[in-house]
Amino acid sequence: MTEPNQSAVCWRFAGYELDEQLGALSGRGSTERLRPKTLAVLRYMLDHPGRLLSRSELLSNVWSDTVVTEDSLTQCIAEIRRACGDHDRTLIKTVPKRGFIFDAEVTSQIVPRSGGSRRAPSLNRIIVIIGILAVVAVGITLRKPWAPAEGATNLIAVTEIAPAANRSRSGATLLTEALRLRLDEMDALSIRGIGTESSTRSQLDVSRENAIDWLVTGDISTVPGGAADRVQIWLWQVDQGNRFSLGVFSLPASVDTTTTAEFLALRDLIVERALERLPGHIVGPAPSGFPDDLRDFETYASVMAALEQEQCNPQLTADIRPVVENTPTFVRGWMAFAWAAWVESWACGLGDSSLTSAIAAADRVLELRPNYPQAIKVKTSAMAAMGEVQRALDVATQATAESPDIAALWSTQSYLQNYVGDLSASEAAMDRALALDPLVLVAETGETPNIYLYVTKWQRYIDTQPPFDAPFFNFQRAYALFRLGDISSAERIASETRRRFPADLYSRFCTALLAVMSDTPERAINILTGITGERDAEGLVDGEVAYRESVLLLLAGAPDKAVERLWTSADQGFVCPDCVRRDPAWASLLADGALSAWLKRYDVAIIPD
Description:
Blueprint: E1 7-13, E2 16-19, E3 24-27, E4 30-33, H1 36-47, E5 52-53, H2 55-62, H3 70-83, E6 92-95, E7 99-102, E8 107-112, H4 123-143, E9 154-158, H5 170-184, E10 189-192, H6 200-209, E11 214-221, E12 228-237, E13 242-252, H7 260-276, H8 280-283, H9 294-307, H10 315-326, H11 331-347, H12 352-368, H13 373-385, H14 389-402, H15 407-419, H16 423-436, H17 451-454, H18 458-464, H19 471-484, H20 487-500, H21 505-517, H22 521-538, H23 543-555, H24 559-571, H25 577-582, H26 587-592, H27 596-606
Parallel strand pairs: 9-10, 9-11
Antiparallel strand pairs: 1-2, 1-8, 2-3, 3-4, 5-7, 6-7, 11-12, 12-13
Helix pairs in contact: 1-3, 4-5, 5-7, 9-10, 9-11, 10-11, 11-12, 11-13, 12-13, 13-14, 13-15, 14-15, 15-16, 18-19, 19-20, 19-21, 20-21, 21-22, 22-23, 23-24
């Protein structure tokens, strides 16, 4: 592609020149490329010289499409100061508790560039080049003494991300090298290479033997019926053997299914998200609000690791409580508390008491970080579970109005709009969330595009669902495949889920679905009736669960029980006339007028004509 009239903006200040197109800062005999976010922070400061810029202003403008902790901004400021030789902090002045001032005269001009023919290199060529660089880099690091580089305080190693079985190593190689290169850019870290063929246990042993402080590992795994592979990245505290999740992400199952540019853009977004979770202790000075006591971080990491299991464990809230009491401004700690209480409410059957604790912890987060998406998510989910669905929707709607560029807020709003039956608005909100951020649906926090099930877009649901194999996700994936007519795939997923998680609610739903598919409806009815009785006896309230029971009962040939459960779902806050009208399963009852009383009661009240 030829671009004969290219031009770029160059900025000049304090003896330096910033080439915006190249992302290069030149001056005083050196040139340095800046990371994209570091470049964005500098550009925003250049646009506002001499003005006090608060941390919240910088975060909201540079990271408008996602939410990060202040340590990301701290790292960018440190990189700019280093590149500009601002060791005495006279160029970027820190105003304690208020923000920063870029104190320099700034000029800019448009610089024309000559055009030229540019052709994007093939993905295979990129992989070969990166592979060669990786071998050279590992060889160099292995020859160096096992000691931090000058100025670094922590040694960190990155092992090869393990690719899924029967998958090309291409995606795994590209992801691994991006992680290594980004970690190597951090001043407080000194990256080292270790063997890539050994098990995680032996990798930890090798790391201990060589005084490595932290180890980054990961794998890429396939998910039955999923449209993408699952990437999981972990941070290990080597001396203690503690593992801390840096995230679970979606990655195309093959680099051949997408363009090189799209694949690399998603790869870079995954790396950015993962590294945003690194604790301040290892990437530089601990940011405001992060625990000063490393033992508190260890407790926090162990609680987060336990939450990945999504199982009943009331000890988690007890464990995390002293951490947030010691550091009351620790946002991530309060979120761990909120999620632990939320999991208690449904996994342990503790109901409103745990939901109230979850809301209180989320409110504490929102005091520290207004409209923090995860806090809005857990607060509104807990409110909905307590029957306060409209109030929850009001909270989410206000949040999206105030922060319209945060994708996760639109996802939460979509869920609640679906809950009250406004399917068109819910679908539009989910579409917007995915357009803003392709990684907005996070398996770890239960994010799933439910709306596409309720508008009967089964394939759209499968294509956008996070690649996670928890029973909740597996049931919905199996259900969508069943509705698409792919019975063999649906049976395989449901059977495997039932085998691995026999006591889980959604595994039991899988068993009921299997009974429907194997033409043994009486068994399905017995299973669902048992679930209904248990939940009602324990006082567990969840209108969406009751609605799923009603649909399965309908598919099992028990229309009277299905209608009864449909009334229950509405009484528990899940009121969705459009769900009923759009789903072919209800067609005969709609035609016979069996649902006229239900529609009359709720249709007019919730969605007026």
